[in-house]
Structure formats: structure tokens, C-alpha cells
Amino acid sequence: QEQLVESGGGLVQAGGSLRLSCAASGIIFSFTSMGWYRQTPGKQRELVATISSGGTTNYAESVKGRFTISRDNAKNTVGLQMNSLKPEDTGVYHCKAVFEWLGRRAEYWGQGTQVTVSS
Q1: How far is CA 92 from CA 7, 30, 51, 72, in A?
Q2: Hey, is 39 helix, strand or coil?
Q3: Where does residue 95 rank: exposed (0-12), middle (13-18), buried (19+ CB within 10 A)?
Q4: With contact defined as beta carbons under 8 Å apart, do 113 and 21 qualify?
Q5: Nearest CA to 82 among 13, 23, 29?
Q6: Three-class SS state of 68
Q7: DSSP 8-class letter at 27
Q8: pLDDT per residue of the chain (119 residues) written in tens, 0 to 9
């Protein structure tokens, strides 16, 4: 059974740092692109950062230079290092996996972890 489990959220003051982690199971990780998305009340879920199976990264403009996404294919995990946090970074952070191989495609989402940045 495919599963994504996030951890590492919490409450932090503006200017602080947090590191999120997402552990994947039941997925062929080496053929899977991974990403972090943020959900806030009244807004659509938005892309924060993605990393392809080959390690190519992509960031939302609002987090460039502050957040770093990384993956460990040996441990089937993806991390998000968040520095210089701002109150507008507050939200539920969800991990997403996109598996693509030989014409097959499947998407999976984690339940999310809450990040709250106080001013």
C-alpha cells in the first residue's frame, strides 16, 4: 500500500527554521518525483517546491533562497529545509509523489503537517 507520512511541523517564530520530512512506502521511489505543497484556509493548495527523480529542483518564487528541497533515494525520503520563516509561510504542508514509468502515472498525497510561524 502506497503511503506518504510527513513529520517535522510545529510552531516557530518569524526568522526561525524548521525541517520537514516525508517518508514514502509502497512506491518505486527512484521513478517518482516528489514535492511539497502548502494549504491555507480559503486558498487552493499551492506548490512550494518539487524535486524530480533525477534531482532537478523547482521552487515557488516566494520561497526561493529560503527553502531547500532534497531527497534520499536510499531511505525513500524527501526533506524541506525552511529558513528565515515568515508568518505567510504558515499552513499545512503536504507531501506529493508522482510516479511515472513506462506510460503509467499515479499521484499520492500525504496527510500533511502543520507549520505555524508567529510574528
Answers
A1: 11, 26, 19, 23
A2: strand
A3: buried
A4: no
A5: 13
A6: strand
A7: S
A8: 899 999 999 999 999 999 999 999 999 888 999 999 999 988 999 999 999 999 999 999 999 999 999 999 999 999 999 999 999 999 999 999 999 989 999 999 999 999 999 99
- What cell does 50 get? 518539487
Buried/exposed 62-76: b ≥16 CB within 10 Å, e otherwise = ebeeebbbbbeeeeb
Rounded distance, CA 20 to CA 93, Å?
9
Distance CA 66, CA 4 (A): 24
